[in-house]
């Protein structure tokens, strides 16, 4: 009976192999973009409600605590992307039983890793808050928000990882619906907790957790599909599978850790060069950045199931066609986002609250300068995902380390003494530009060698 089930499930796969590459790409791209946009709304909604209801200090406090969310998201991406890549490769090779074992193994790893990190961070939450940039003014807000996330963070990791597997099992629309439900519920609960119950930032954190749990419940509808391959099986721990999962998913983990380094680095730089005003201005930029970041991450998420599947099915031409379409889409999108930031910087700042003129002016300048980086960021995300999904992990890790950690830190040390706060804003755009240029040179080098 299991063999018949495997044959029935395998029957849904040929559309990946016979439909046009562009059609398959769009089928995954649109739900992925909408889903990631909804995920960013989960974070941005907190900032909008807190900024309007509780003011700039509270907003700065939860911005300081936001790396905690990033760490949980990083764990889910690390193990989830690694597992989902192997899962799709097994599906491409028509080995459904192996794919199911990978799925079960990955979710268990994610839960165990999350609990270990959460317990450790909870016990050290006060020094952790100071290390993230808190001071006496922002510490109470940061701790309150952080405590809720550390207590219920496993919900965030399970929901996101499960979403990755559902997308890789040919159901990107359900993954998108899960994110939509989470975003809408988060907005409703934020209003209820902050305006009706008059709670502090704890209410906003609880809204995010409860909304995420609702999104996870939605994903279980995937198990009602007759054509699914995804299924829980008796777990069999494997060191070899664990190492492969961790290795393939490592670039995604570094990418999210880099986001935390970005937040910490910019907070520290702004404290030094513009004080609390700078931190408040950066908090506005950071929320806007989280939306744009998710859009480009969505492009990477869209190609990951495709590249992994084609790799397992040994369809190399479709791999190349997919990455060409994705890079073109990312570049055009980056230009549109850049122009959007130049035209509507003031409106973006107003969205997050009524700030003093000094904060508002600094944030508007920051948005206009920072958005230059989006012309290159999408290309970098897409190429990182391509190298990762095709198991060229070294190249993927190099891209991530360079753009979000190494080059950014170097530019944060060099540019502000020369250009003040403008140097802080320009550190990421310059990092993205340098990495995109290096990727172009590297790919041309590979193409040249391949033709010789």
From TrEMBL:
Subcellular location: Cell membrane
Pfam families: MatE
Positions of transmembrane segments: 25-45, 57-81, 102-125, 145-166, 173-193, 205-224, 245-267, 287-310, 322-341, 361-383, 395-418, 424-443
Gene Ontology process terms (BP): response to antibiotic
Bilayer topology annotation: Multi-pass membrane protein
GO molecular function per UniProt: antiporter activity; xenobiotic transmembrane transporter activity
Keyword Cell membrane appears in the UniProt entry: yes
Keyword list, A-Z: Antibiotic resistance, Cell membrane, Membrane, Transmembrane, Transmembrane helix, Transport
Coiled-coil intervals: none
GO cellular component: plasma membrane
Family note: Belongs to the multi antimicrobial extrusion (MATE) (TC 2.A.66.1) family. MepA subfamily.
Record's protein name: Multidrug export protein MepA
Organism: Paenibacillus azoreducens
